[in-house]
């Protein structure tokens, strides 16, 4: 299958008074056409900054230091601001964790969705208004005419998130980046939104980069997984390999899997949580970044940094001693 997005050895840093913060520190991953890639990892692992790098939504003190991002074969990481704004509007859109940060509080839903439609699909104001209602129907809003006339503050969190999805899909993107799109919502609404995103992906063939803390959600949503730790991808594979089939697994992924209550069916067994904390970004360990928390760490791990290496087709692990499945 063709690759829609390819990130190779990406380094995105923040320059701060206290030193360089290596938010993205050698990320390599790819997304196939029509696939969902789940990106998972603890807080601070660089998930959002990888997404921001794709769209070049950077702070003033932030830039790409090394590596490249290819979209449909073109190196977009070299694009200037004007070229990038075309990519953002037409090819790649993003849903943020908190919809109020991207919905404008002073405009109605209609105005916000219509603007995208007029700009990117060349519709007239009237056509856009009608289509905006259609988009709201597509994201299963029960009273689309009324919601279309509403301001964001008049809507519930779940409705706002649906409006965000409608807006993100209005330009018919080839890639939708969803950064923890449901963490602020309650469990029932979360399930509905996830179902809806899967349905839209099937109908429109959109590829999705789905960012979450929750491997359980990845299991439900994704075709492929990238596990991140300290600004790097430590393991990437098709979902089935990560959850059951692979012969080997990264020690960090093993830790994440044993911390999922839903997958841990033996209720008498104690839920294992990865000990220790993510290192401070200004004080990263030498060698493997996971070594201080890894129960399999050796002297080699503390001295040298492992590379992301393919262990079987489509499955790569960044570790000197991947864990053999079923063996503790
Ligand atoms: N504006 C900023 N200035 C300096 N460092 C930043 C800034 N934003 C993020 N970082 C750092 O970049 C690293 C990666 O952050 P990022 O937001 O990508 O993590 P994340 O995996 O998305 O975490 P979370 O799950 O909490 O959203 C962290 O060490 C963070 O402290
Ligand atoms: S390289 Fe060593 S420390 Fe790092 S994850 Fe593998 S076994 Fe653990
Ligand atoms: Mg984040």
From TrEMBL:
SMART domains given in the database record: AAA
Keywords (A to Z) from UniProt: ATP-binding, Cell membrane, Membrane, Nucleotide-binding, Transport
Alphabetized PROSITE patterns for the sequence: ABC_TRANSPORTER_1, ABC_TRANSPORTER_2
Subcellular compartments: Cell membrane
GO molecular function: ATP binding
Alphabetical list of SUPFAM superfamilies matching this protein: P-loop containing nucleoside triphosphate hydrolases (SSF52540)
Mode of membrane association: Peripheral membrane protein
Transmembrane helix as UniProt keyword: no
Domain ABC transporter: 5-255
Pfam families: ABC_tran, oligo_HPY
Domain of life: Bacteria
Family to which this protein belongs: Belongs to the ABC transporter superfamily.
UniProt-recorded name of the protein: ABC transporter ATP-binding protein
Native species: Massilicoli timonensis
Lineage summary: Bacteria, Bacillati, Bacillota, Erysipelotrichia, Erysipelotrichales
